[in-house]
Sequence to fold (94 residues):
Amino acid sequence: MASKYAFPKPLKELRFHLCQTGASSTSLRSFLQRAYPVMKKHNPYTPILIREAQGVSPQVIARFEYGKEVKLSLDSVTDKDLEATIEKFVMTAP
Fold:
């Protein structure tokens, strides 16, 4: 990988679902505050969406070529492990 958070070509969209106030989304909220600018800088044409809703468990959804979507629950992932988890998830194109 050439740079941090450089997504592969088959990735067409990345969506994060989280709760604004829930304790289970705390690590994802802090990760996004820290990493979103870097992700967007390295992937200016890939939509990175953040969807907040009350009571939602944290998850990331990747949409690849041909409309293929893959979900990953981030419920039990700590802030330290979140970066590696998302990077590995995005790189595993279907």
User: Anything to note?
Assistant: Residues 41 and 56 are 28 Å apart (CA to CA). The chain has a mean pLDDT of 90. The first helix runs from residue 26 to 42. The helical segments are 26-42, 79-91.
